[in-house]
Amino acid sequence: MVKICCIGAGYVGGPTMAIIALKCPSIEVAVVDISVSRITAWNSDQLPIYEPGLDDVVKQCRGKNLFFSTDVEKHVSEADIVFVSVNTPTKTRGLGAGKAADLTYWESAARMIADVSKSNKIVVEKSTVPVKTAEAIEKILTHNSKGIQFQILSNPEFLAEGTAIQDLLNPDRVLIGGRETPEGQKAIQALKDVYAQWVPEERILTANLWSAELSKLAANAFLAQRISSVNAMSALCEATGANVMQVSYAVGKDSRIGPKFLNSSVGFGGSCFQKDILNLVYICECNGLPEVAEYWKQVIKINDYQKNRFVNRVVASMFNTVSNKKIAVLGFAFKKDTGDTRETPAIDVCKGLLGDKARLSIYDPQVAEDQIQRDLTMDKFTWDHPIHLQPMSPTTVKQVSVVWDAYEATKDAHGVCILTEWDEFKTLDYKRVYDNMQKPAFVFDGRNVVDADKLREIGFIVYSIGKPLDPWLKDMPAVA
Ligand SMILES: NC(=O)c1ccc[n+]([C@@H]2O[C@H](COP(=O)([O-])OP(=O)(O)OC[C@H]3O[C@@H](n4cnc5c(N)ncnc54)[C@H](O)[C@@H]3O)[C@@H](O)[C@H]2O)c1
Ligand SMILES: O=c1ccn([C@@H]2O[C@H](COP(=O)(O)OP(=O)(O)O[C@H]3O[C@H](CO)[C@@H](O)[C@H](O)[C@H]3O)[C@@H](O)[C@H]2O)c(=O)[nH]1
To answer: Which residues bind NAD(+) (predicted)?
Structure first.
């Protein structure tokens, strides 16, 4: 029986291995992690991450051919294929701080693999890593290998949170990069055989190691660039009376452009886009390509601009101050159908409003109070280090309350900011919300989920990203 071990039981390791176990009953899959609490949760009824459909898959396979364990060394030493899906956060200090990927966790995993291995292994990069990481990993493994053969493959993951199970079951493509030697090709074939259990052959792409590593960074940069492009247009739409939804619909109808990923928003979030683009920028700089680096940097700059612009709109509309005003924040996760808050635009918007002394009442159906308080007090980039290394600071932001109901959040509020596109925000009883708010009552829709005309009929003053401005907002320039 082929044995697979995955180091890192996070958003990628957990769901990816669960699907491999589901689709390959003859393979034994062990997911290991140094975080005891994470593994305990994977072995309980309350999984550590919220992902539609994940519970069912885990329940079907756990204890049969899917195991979660903290016994990292045992499972690594027994495995034929070792996936590494540990954190690759942005470096917070030293060379490349604020841009380069911190490979501390990857390196420690690689050294451990070399230490405990007693048989030949295929080591698979599942984490998103800088180009040429495989070379560094190869050096660590071969210098410590005691004669054991390791083949390194790059198999980047393209799943998006909230749709991870569907993405894994029906991927656009699976990409496998390896050495162009007979041994390298044999290793590629071994991994192909795993995916071929459910992924059509033509969607399993093979490449050289460096192309596979770079393709992952490039895909995220292209996706984020589309969002920054449409968000840049949203500012121009507001200035000219155009409607960004009509513009992106018309643009997306061009089959060369396509309709997906053109939704204007308060900004993109999530653990990957910013981190991976910063990493790409750093790699370009290191390779003497400052113009290319500058090009990609703009994607992040526009994203920051979009978040600032939103805060400025809120403050400017409410007579240039939100001091001591209650602002309801609906949605804190970085997108719907996840409880993940890593790099969510809600953090920057909330911090911006708190900077102007607002009182915030936050509601998100999947994010708990301690997570929100931690996010609002944590230093930049600390969030992406393993959970047990993160500060469990008891400090709370006093002006923030977290409630479990949208009506409670909006009661007596002066304004409502919609920051995540949860479906339930489309169908709220906005008449009830309006009746219980201070007047004038404002809605700032950072995700274009509400019907602005209907809300205006109720009496709200409405700001929708990239749409023709409410007469109230027209003479209120939102400049910092
Ligand atoms: N989250 C996504 O949607 C997504 C999608 C594609 C790729 N990625 C990439 O995949 C990688 C993992 O992302 P994630 O979101 O799953 O992160 P995560 O923080 O959810 O999980 C990483 C896990 O690795 C564990 N870990 C760290 N060092 C370890 C070690 N030495 N031994 C054992 N366990 C260790 C941590 O405790 C943590 O539980 C990153 O490189 C990320 O960029 C993420
Ligand atoms: O038209 C759009 C699409 C997305 N977003 C925002 O962009 C962010 C990222 O969304 P999404 O890409 O759907 O989720 P992620 O889980 O971050 O997935 C991205 O990052 C992963 C990690 O690398 C990759 O594997 C995925 O392919 C890539 O889509 C979220 O804040 C979304 O709200 C928009 O603002 N407008």
So the answer is: 8-13, 33, 38, 86-90, 127-128, 161, 272-275, 342
Binding site as annotated, residues for NAD(+): 8-13, 33, 38, 86-90, 127-128, 161, 272-275, 342
Judge contact between 2 and 152, C-beta under 8 A. no
What stretches of 353-460 adopt beta strand conformation (E)?
Answer: 359-363, 400-402, 415-418, 442-445
Q: Which of 189, 222, 218 is nearest to 206 (CA)?
A: 189
Determine which residue's CA is closest to atom 30 belonging to ligand 1.
Answer: 109
Ligand nearest to the CA of 270: 2
> Annotated catalytic sites, by residue?
272
Which H or E element spans position 461?
strand 461-464
Binding residues, by number, are 8-13, 33, 38, 86-90, 127-128, 161, 272-275, 342
68: left (phi over 0), alpha (psi -120 to 50) or beta: beta
Task: Give the angle subtended at the CA of 385 by the CAs of 380 and 389, to the nearest 5°.
Answer: 110
Nearest ligand to the C-alpha atom of residue 244: 2
Pairing state between β 415-418 and 400-402? unpaired
The pLDDT, as a whole number, for residue 147 is 85
User: What integer pLDDT is reported at residue 326 of this predicted model?
Assistant: 98
At residue 92, the pLDDT reads 87
451-467 as b/e, with b when 16 or more CB fall inside 10 Å? ebeebeeeebbbbbbbb
**Other CB atoms within 10 A of residue 17 CB:** 29
DSSP per-residue letters across 342-363: TT-HHHHHHHHHHHTT-EEEEE
Is the pLDDT score of 390 beyond 80? no
Testing ligand 2's pocket by substitution, the residue of 49, 334, 336 carrying the most ligand atoms inside 8 A of its CB is 334
Q: Which atom of ligand 2 is nearest to the CA of 227?
A: 36
> What pTM value is reported for the model?
0.96
Q: Ligand 2 mean position to 190 CA, how many Å?
A: 30
CA 170 to chain centre: 20
225 lines ligand 1 (CB under 6 A): no
Rounded CA gap, 421 and 434, in Å? 20
Cβ atoms of residues 46 and 52 within 8 Å: no
- What is the number of the ligand closest to the CA of 306? 2
- Output the pLDDT for position 398: 87
Neighbours of 407 (CB within 10 A): 14
Task: State yes or no: ipTM above 0.90.
Answer: yes
Amino acid at 444: F
Contacts of range 54-61, beta carbons closer than 8 Å, 24 or more positions apart: 54/14, 54/15, 54/18, 54/164, 54/165, 57/15, 57/18, 57/19, 57/22, 57/165, 58/14, 58/18, 60/22, 61/18, 61/21, 61/22, 61/29
